[in-house]
Inverse folding.
């Protein structure tokens, strides 16, 4: 009986033995960690010269790290402007939710009728890790543990292409969670995943699909983002204008 555990994220993958890490890997991991741990705010400028000095890297190495982060959706590379941390928005989050619902429903349908006990215990271990991270307020560890459940289910579905695609969507979700003004993961999210695992233990994969949809919709409903700045005075003072309109009606 084997225990299937989630594979490493791109940031955790090690080069083959005998090969050195690419110079940009340290910067890639550092920026990714700073974003997930909320030490870098949405739209924060990422000056290449400053990053090169801080990490002792060439301009080309810094650019490669930024391009990798852009592929993850964590960084934007506007033309003729400094790179900046992506600013998530509700519209983008809605599209991400649609993609995850479609993909994760299919993953659950590909699971065996019954999971082995060791596999179920490994999934439960990921949920317990989430609870531990909540107590320690380990935000980055919490995101990794939550994603671990979804990645492990994708591994059990035995389709590496679906798993790779899900890993990309999970990195996008992690970014949205990290940059949300609220904390979308709490004890209730852990309970939702635990109930989902219990359905799988009972062989009720259809019930697990229902719980997965409920879990994902709840997660995305709790996301709150800072509105992007605007040059439109009416948009900037929409709340004030609405208050004045209400006051006039009352008069």
């Amino acid at each position: 009986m084997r225990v299937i555990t989630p594979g490493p994220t791109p940031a955790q993958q090690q080069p083959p033995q005998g090969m050195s890490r690419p110079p940009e890997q340290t910067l890639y991991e550092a920026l990714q960690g700073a974003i997930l741990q909320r030490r870098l705010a949405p739209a924060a400028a990422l000056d290449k010269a400053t990053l090169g000095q801080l990490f002792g890297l060439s301009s080309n190495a810094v650019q490669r790290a930024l391009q990798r982060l852009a592929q993850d959706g964590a960084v934007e590379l506007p033309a003729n402007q400094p790179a900046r941390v992506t600013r998530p928005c509700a519209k983008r989050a809605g599209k991400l939710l649609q993609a995850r619902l479609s993909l994760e429903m299919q993953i659950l349908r590909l699971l065996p009728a019954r999971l082995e006990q060791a596999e179920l215990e490994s999934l439960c271990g990921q949920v317990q890790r989430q609870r531990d991270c909540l107590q320690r307020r380990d935000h980055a560890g919490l995101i990794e543990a939550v994603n671990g459940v979804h990645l492990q289910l994708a591994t059990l579905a035995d389709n590496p292409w679906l798993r790779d695609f899900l890993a990309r969507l999970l990195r996008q979700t992690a970014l949205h969670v990290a940059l949300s003004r609220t904390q979308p993961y709490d004890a209730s999210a852990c309970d939702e995943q635990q109930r989902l695992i219990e359905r799988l233990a009972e062989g009720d994969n259809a019930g697990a699909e229902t719980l997965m949809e409920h879990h994902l919709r709840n997660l995305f409903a709790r996301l709150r983002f800072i509105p992007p700045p605007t040059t439109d005075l009416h948009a900037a003072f929409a709340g004030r204008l609405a208050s004045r309109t209400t006051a006039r009606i009352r008069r």
